[in-house]
Amino acid sequence: MSNENYSTVVSVRLASSLAQLVDAQARAEGLSRSDYLAKIIRQNVGNKA
Q1: Quick one: 22 exposed, middle or buried, by C-beta within 10 A (0-12, 13-18, 19+)?
Q2: What is the domain count for the chain?
Q3: Full residue range of the structural domain in which residue 20 is found
Q4: What span, in angstroms and rounded, lies between the C-alpha atoms of 33 and 35?
Q5: What's the whole-model pTM score?
Q6: Can you tell me the distance from the alpha carbon of 2 to that of 25, in angstroms, rounded to the nearest whole number?
């Protein structure tokens, strides 16, 4: 496998794992994925976003 293909596979797997973690945390907090992500953005960027 070329380095480029390997990097793509790793990136896709990381993105998939991150999406699963976000979904699990959103469910645990009783929020939709988008509401949870908005909450995280507000916490990290402030209300400027």
Answers
A1: middle
A2: 1
A3: 3-45
A4: 6
A5: 0.70
A6: 35
DSSP designation for 31? -
How far is Cα 44 from Cα 9, in angstroms, rounded to an integer? 29
**Cα 21 from chain centroid (whole Å):** 7
**CA 2, 8, 23 angle in degrees (round to 5)?**
155
Backbone φ, ψ for residue 43 (5° rounding): -65, -35
Close Cβ partners of 32 (under 8 Å, ≥ 6 residues apart)? 26
What pLDDT digit, counting tens, does each position of 23-48 carry? 999 999 999 999 999 999 999 997 66
Q: Which amino acid is at 33?
A: R
